[in-house]
Write a structure and sequence with these properties.
It is a single chain. By secondary structure, this protein is an alpha+beta fold. The chain has one domain (2-80): YaeB-like fold. It is built from three helices and five strands. It has helices spanning 5-12, 16-30, 75-81, and strands at 2-3, 37-39, 48-52, 55-61, 67-74. Strands 1-5-4-3-2 form a five-stranded mixed β-sheet. Strand 4 (55-61) and strand 5 form a beta hairpin. The radius of gyration is 12 Å and the shape is globular. The chain starts with a strand and ends in a 9-residue tail after the last helix.
């Protein structure tokens, strides 16, 4: 599992309990546990979102199947702020 720089910074700024919940959800997802995940569409096609309370983690899987968390933020802003990295998804 890899985290973008934005995810690392966002995690550091969260309350420890929220940070723990998000890390636990990502670890469970990475281990194959079913979580609240949905595929994104439109300009975000190729990415998925993980819902953890009011937060969303936008992620993708690379060619080797490794989870890459690209963006973390509250639901009310994540889709207006996140811009997919160039060449991240083909």
């Amino acid at each position: 599992m890899k985290f973008s720089d934005q995810v690392v910074v966002a995690l550091r700024g969260l309350h420890p309990g929220v940070r723990r919940d998000i890390r636990r959800a990502l670890d469970e997802l990475n281990a194959g546990t079913k979580r609240d995940v949905a595929a994104l569409t439109g300009e975000f096609a190729g990415f998925l979102r993980l819902r953890v309370g009011k937060y969303r983690v936008v992620f993708r899987y690379d060619e080797a199947g490794e989870l890459i968390a690209e963006f973390l933020g509250p639901r009310n802003t994540v889709y207006s702020v996140f811009k997919p990295p160039a060449g991240a998804v083909d």
